[in-house]
Structure formats: C-alpha cells, structure tokens
Amino acid sequence: MRYISTRGDKTERRFCEILLEGLAPDGGLYLPVAYPQVSDATLTKWRNLSYAELAFEILSLYIDDIPAEDLRAITQRTYTEAVFGTAAITPLKQLEPGLALEALSNGPTLAFKDMAMQLLGQLFEYELGRRGETLNILGATSGDTGSAAEYAMRGKAGVNVFMLSPLGRMSPFQQAQMFSLQDKNIHNIAVEGVFDDCQDIVKAVSNDLAFKRQHKIGTVNSINWARLLAQVVYYFAGYLQATKSNSDKVSFCVPSGNFGNVCAGHVARQMGLPIAKLVVATNENDVLDEFFRTGSYRPRGSAETHETSSPSMDISKASNFERFVFDLLGRDGARVKALFGAGGFALTAEEHAAIARFGFSSGRSTHADRLATIKLCHQRYGQLIDTHTADGLKVALEQREPGVTMLVLETALPAKFAATIREALDIEPPRPAGLENIEALPKRVTEMKADAQAVKQFIVDHV
Ligand SMILES: *Cc1c(COP(=O)(O)O)cnc(C)c1O
Question: Mean pLDDT over all residues of the chain?
Fold first, then answer.
C-alpha cells in the first residue's frame, strides 16, 4: 500500500515513511491510494480471531514494509488483557436489545486514545530501532492525548516525550496520571498559561526547522495515519461482536472532536464493513454537526470555543476532517486544497447530498443533555458512563433505526470526569484497581513560563 496527500501531491509514500511524520509536505493529510476491500468470506473468517489477530489482519492490508512476523509480534505485544483489562479488549456492554456501548476505555489512561497510542509506541520503538535513530516527541495537552502518549512511550527505547500542559488547569486526576510517571524518558512541563499557549510553543519550536532537525523533534498528534489505522480495528471488532451474520447492519455513534475516531469508522465502511450509519455526536462545540446538517464548514476561533463538561471534544477546528472531505469530493486534491486553504467553506447542494451515500449523520448534545443522559443510563440500564459517552448516547437514542443495532463508542471512563458524575447523580464514580490514591504519588514535573526559548533549552538539557 502507498499513501498520497489530500491536497493534490501524488508522490506515493510507504507506511514507515509516513509513520513518524505529521502533515504531508503540501500541507495535506496522508491517505492510502485506495481502500483495500474486505470480502464476505474474509469477514466470516475474521469472526474467530482474537483482537490482536484481527488487528494484524487489518494492519497487514495497509503495511507492506514491516515483515509479517514482526507486525504480528507488535500487535500481540500491544493488545493484551494485561494492558486492556479483558480478553475481548473492546467488549460490548449491552444496554437493551439493539443498543450497546463498545468499551474502548480500559487501557492505562482510561480513554479511547490508548487504543491507538499503545500501538504507536510499539511501532515507533520498532522503526526507530531498525533505523538506529532517536525521536523527541513534543506535544501540548489539555488531558487525554498527553497522558495516552506518555503511557504508550514510557520506557520505550529511542523515544523521549516532552509534554506541555497548562499549569493547574487539568483535573487533579489527570495531573496525577501524568506527573506520577517516573520514567526517565518522560518529561512533564507545566506552562504558566492556557492550552493555546502550550500549543503556540509547540508550533514555535516546530517552525524552527534547524532546531527541529538537529534535535529530532516529532509529534504524535491525531492526524498521524498510524493512529487512525489502529482505530479502524475496533469498528470491525464491534461489528463482529454485535452480529451473527454479515447481512446484519450496525450503526455507530461516535462522540467527536477532531474527527479522528469517526474517520476510522469511515475507513472501515469504505473497506466494505456493513455499517449502516456513522453518527457524529458533538457537544456545544458543534462545528461538525453544523457541517453535516448544512454542508457549510465554519471553523471557530479559540474565543468562540466553549469550555464544556466533555472537554476532550472542545475543539474549534476538526483536524482529521479533511480526510473525509477528500473522499466526499471524489479525491479532488486541488479542490480540497482550495477549500481548506480558505478556512471555512460551503459545499454545493449536490456535494452536500452525497454525504448520505457515505452513511454520515450528526447530532448535538449540551451540558443539560449530558446530566440527563448520565442519569437515564444509570437508572434505566444500571451503567455509569462518562460525559463524552453521554453525548454519544444522547444522539444515538435520537437516531436509532428499527432493525439496526446501534453501538455507542465509550470514549472514557467516568472516573476521569468525576465532578460531572457527582453533579448528575451525587455519587463518586469508582476507580479501577490501583488508581485509588494516585493523587498522593510523588510528582515529576517542571514548571515554566510560557516561553518557547526556555522549552528549547529544557529539551537540549534533557536529551
Ligand atoms: C479525544 C476524545 C474524543 C474526541 O475524539 P476525536 O478523535 O478527536 O473525534 C472524545 N472523547 C474522549 C474521551 C476523548 O479523549
């Protein structure tokens, strides 16, 4: 399989060439030249596989520059019961007939980002080892991504992580998760400022090309193709668990921010997985819901981005969305370049009508909806869900169709967002074993002014 950019550069690259990269040189995102098709017979054969074996089968359709036995060993090391809590890795939790949660949040940081990031850690270590290179990952986080990256990269040979977070602004649990890591290759930097200040520093350092090259600076952000590919696997795993035969259809409802999670569902559907609908659920930051309803895409400024109780979906610009638009517009790279170069855009009526062919629909949820849905789910189904999953369930209940099973992707555990659980139900969400006293552990973090020069110096001193 080869990969091209969404903005018209047709240079074909191989998987391991783009593994450690972010954007394509023309500013686009990488996609495979074509989606491999999964036949009915293959899907049937996959019904008997473990999650790690299924991951190997799907990844091998996209990766031909890692020997099969190595790739198999990588997936076996990644998707273990020890790391993800169950043999099924992403088990379904039945709510009622035709409605279930797919649990994606039983990895080390209790959010779905572990599903992809744990694989990325193994792939990075493998590829860097093969090349005899090192990489210094620089990132900014408001919570879930940074911790998932740190838990995936801790102790990995050839990789250092420098993670910026806004001082005092993450929840005590999130801070404890990150700052309690004592691994020598993990560096937490708490910046005096807000998340945008952290992101500006990452941009400033990355734009210093000489520094970037000399100090081998890389990223693990959500546009990385390998992360997206890893997520394709759980759409297949969810479908195969929910159905007995390949003639059954399943819809997925996906709590969305950067469009990374649901974009993997789009890829699975393009490969031939019998997905009826892909339902995009947003919170008050409803750029995507507006797009799917109206065909007009209006990314917002940070001043217009609301702080909500499902904070991992508080985005103004959906960084993976360009991949879907590329497919929607018949892979016309020049048009995609014009649209995204201009910031916002509106589709023609004909283009907007094509969205239905791709199975997409959308809905929106608010703080009041989250509280009501957390209550409803607890009372009606006896299940405690987090705020992001609640956004998904709220929209799923509105958009279910008779005869089609609806799977809601559970993107985090309630323990991560305890304040809103208390507000909804006046109870304390349980914590997985071993995390009861995580706030009391010794912390390893350096506090710093919002100054790119100081961050550069810190990197130089610690590699
Ligand atoms: C990152 C995240 C999301 C949003 O996923 P995208 O891939 O950005 O659409 C939703 N819920 C939780 C808990 C997350 O951490």
Answer: 95
Q: What architecture does CATH give domain 93-105+231-425?
A: 3-Layer(aba) Sandwich (3.40)
Please tell me the chain's helix, strand, coil percentages from 3-state DSSP, rounded to the nearest 5.
45, 15, 35
Complete DSSP assignment for 152-214: HHTT-TTEEEEEEEETTTS-HHHHHHHHT---TTEEEEEEES-HHHHHHHHHHHHH-HHHHHH
What pLDDT does 168 receive? 87
Residues involved in catalysis: 113
Q: For a pocket test of ligand 1, which of 322, 360, 411 has the largest count of ligand atoms closer than 8 A to its C-beta? A: 411
The alpha carbon of 313 and the centre of ligand 1 are apart by a number of angstroms equal to 6
* CB neighbourhood size of 382 (10 A): 8
- How much distance in Å is there from the Cα of 457 to the middle of ligand 1? 32
To test the ligand 1 pocket, which listed residue (144, 280, 370) has its Cβ within 8 A of the most ligand atoms?
Answer: 144
The CA 40 to ligand 1 mean position distance, Å, reads 31
Q: Which residues line ligand 1 (CB under 6 A)?
A: 111, 113, 144, 222, 255-261, 312-313, 388, 411-412
Residue-level pLDDT at 341: 87
Q: Where are the domains of the chain?
A: 93-105+231-425
Q: Report pTM.
A: 0.96
Q: Which long-range contacts (CB under 8 A, 24 or more apart) does 125-128 make?
A: 125/156, 125/157, 125/158, 125/159, 126/66, 126/70, 126/74, 127/16, 127/19, 127/20, 128/20, 128/157, 128/158, 128/159
**In ligand 1, which atom is closest to the CA atom of 386?**
13
What is residue 300's predicted lDDT score, i.e. its pLDDT? 86
pLDDT digits (tens, 9 = 90+) for 102-141: 999 999 999 999 999 999 999 999 999 999 999 999 999 8
Mean pLDDT of 343-360: 93
